[in-house]
Structures are given as C-alpha cells and as structure tokens.
Design goal:
Rossmann fold; 6 helices; 7 strands; binds 5-O-phosphono-beta-D-ribofuranosylamine
C-alpha cells in the first residue's frame, strides 16, 4: 500500500513509520511527504531517506481548496491509497476529505475525547490527570474528532515534568502508529479483495 505522510514539524513519527516500512514491518511504502512548513526538520528526515516531498506554503494560495486541489493531484499522480497525518498542524478540508474518505488517519497525544486541539500534553499536565495517552483515529471535518481506531494509556507520575510526559507519550506513539497503520492497511486490503 502506498502511503503519504503529512507533517509540519520534527517528524519523529514520520521517521518511525518510514523505518517500519523499510524494515518491512508494515505492508506499505512511504511514497510522499506533504509538508506545509519550509523549515520543518521532517524535510531533512525525508531527504535522508530519499522520500519525495510536496512542500507548500498556505499563504501562497487564496484558499484551502486551492492548495488541497494541488495536494490531491500529487497524491493521485503517485497512486497514494492512505493518508497518515503525523503532526500536520492544519484541519483537513472538504477537498481532501471527499477524495480520501475513510482513508485519512491521525495521531493525537491524549486519550480523546479528552484534551483535543493544541498542546494536548500541556493540557493534560495542567489538569493534573494521572493517566493520559495516545489516540489514533479516522479524520473527519472536526478538530481531533472522528472514529477511534486505537488508544494506549500513559501513566503520569507526580514527579514527572511536562518533558517526561512528552517523552513517554512519544515512545508510545512510535510503537502504536506503525502497528495501527498495519491494522488499517489489512482492513483496506480486505475491502478491495
Ligand atoms: C505528535 O505528538 C502527534 O501526536 C501530534 O503531533 C506530534 C508530532 O510529533 N499530532 P513529531 O513531529 O512526529 O515528532
């Protein structure tokens, strides 16, 4: 299965997905990175792994529809079957959603529906919850809504700093995303056969 990863930042999840694909732990190849930030570190990671990049700046377009149309054309040109959002800091609009209905997934660093939106780890930390975690879900038009595919809890100890929590969450993400992608791919393959 050909997948495209969308990311705006460091890309540690991108890296774990690429490595899982290279090591044949998942039945997929990462055939495109879509990135909306010109200086994101994820671009360097893509370069190291020779992964094609579609990079754009939203401000160069008059609307979301305009840049999403270009993204869709690029995805179709490369026969992309599944879109994996990994720290893509934008809401997906109707143009992409319509074209890839049920084939866009996202990872969020909390146990949704708790703490949606920006800085979920900071929100959980401030709320002093004892358990937070990671959620992977299908994407719809909402912010971190859509049917949940997988969740894993992470315990927050009283002595943990926000950075400690971040590290724990990230290490869960790097395991959970590849295994969940494999699960979604198996379902996609079953539905076409
Ligand atoms: C992850 O914590 C993910 O859950 C959230 O954005 C972060 C991306 O981190 N959606 P990275 O760029 O993959 O390191």
């Amino acid at each position: 299965v050909k997948i495209a990863v969308f990311a705006s930042g460091s890309g540690s999840n991108f890296q774990s997905i690429v490595e899982s694909a290279e090591q044949k732990k998942i039945d997929a190849s990462v055939d495109l990175l879509v990135c909306d930030k010109k200086d994101a570190y994820v671009l360097t990671r893509a370069d190291k792994h020779c992964i094609p990049v579609f990079s754009f700046s939203a401000k160069d377009y008059s609307s979301k529809e305009m840049f999403e149309k270009e993204i869709v054309a690029e995805l179709q040109r490369r026969d992309i079957e599944l879109i994996v959002l990994a720290g893509y800091m934008r809401l997906v609009g109707p143009t992409l959603l319509r074209e890839y209905e049920g084939r866009i997934i996202n990872i969020h660093p909390s146990l949704l529906p708790a703490f949606p939106g920006l800085d979920a780890i900071g929100q959980a930390f401030t709320a002093q919850v004892k358990i937070s975690g990671v959620t992977i879900h299908f994407v719809d038009e909402g912010m971190d809504t859509g049917p949940i595919i997988a969740q894993e809890p992470v315990r927050i100890e009283e002595t943990d700093t926000k950075e400690d929590v971040q590290k724990k969450i990230q290490s869960v993400e790097h395991q959970l995303y590849p295994t969940t992608i494999q699960h979604v791919i198996s379902q996609l393959q079953r539905s076409v056969n």
